[in-house]
């Protein structure tokens, strides 16, 4: 199974039913079931689903995206240069526009199909296409700080903002004990490289 075998739909509050969706993570299941519609109504994020054409009530995968920014003034110079090394119009920019992939889940019944990497690529392509209605330079993920998940996102083109958790604590201005592990790690992908490669292929 690939995304091409499925239908892409926006969440419709009051109609899209997540009651049978289970991605294996209770917090993500709970978000899609109980919070996604409210987030969408309040314009905090928009959720989309992939479903089979013949059974559109059977949600195979879902994700939520929202507008975001990379606050460059709070980045150390070395990190700012790394993240913005291809930003040719960076002078005077306080923020780099971005899209946050806030939630991503694939139902347990379909996780063998490796749809997660396809969805990340789909979102990246989508936000560099002519269909995107606003500027968007980076794809951002606030990933759970688990080795398997960090590795998953790295294998799919995202990089850690910071090499150490302490650097990230300072950027986020978190008042937490240095011995406490961060719950999540910020990761990014520069979409300009994807856009340029797409233009070359035309």
Keywords:
seven-stranded mixed sheet; 202 residues; alpha+beta
Protein model, in words:
The protein has 6 helices and 7 strands. By secondary structure, it is of the alpha+beta class. The protein has a single domain (3-201), classed as Gcn5-related N-acetyltransferase (GNAT) (Aminopeptidase), CATH 3.40.630. It has a 7-stranded mixed β-sheet with strand order 1-2-3-4-5-7-6, sandwiched between helices. The longest helix has 16 residues, at 26-41. The two termini are 27 Å apart. InterPro entries: Acyl_CoA_acyltransferase. GO terms for molecular function: acyltransferase activity. It comes from Prevotella lacticifex. Keywords: Acyltransferase, Toxin-antitoxin system, Transferase.
Structure described in brief:
The chain is built from six helices and seven strands, in the order βαββαβαβαβαβα. The chain is of the alpha+beta class.
Helix-strand blueprint:
Layout lengths: L5 E5 L15 H16 L4 E7 L8 E11 L5 H7 L11 E12 L8 H12 L11 E7 L2 H9 L3 E2 L4 H8 L11 E7 H11 L1
Parallel strand pairs: 4-5
Antiparallel strand pairs: 1-2, 2-3, 3-4, 5-7, 6-7
**Cross-sheet strand order for the largest sheet:** 1-2-3-4-5-7-6
Query: Which CATH class applies here?
Result: Alpha Beta
**CATH third-tier fold name:** Aminopeptidase
Mean pLDDT over the residues: 89
Strand content: 25-35%
Percent range of helical residues:
25-40%
The N- to C-terminal Cα distance equals: 27 Å
Domains counted in the coordinates: how many?
A: 1
By secondary-structure content and strand pairing, the structural class works out as alpha+beta
Could you state the order of secondary-structure elements as H and E? EHEEHEHEHEHEH
CATH arch. level architecture: 3-Layer(aba) Sandwich
Keywords: Acyltransferase, Toxin-antitoxin system, Transferase
Protein name: N-acetyltransferase
InterPro entries: Acyl_CoA_acyltransferase (IPR016181)
GO molecular function, one term: acyltransferase activity
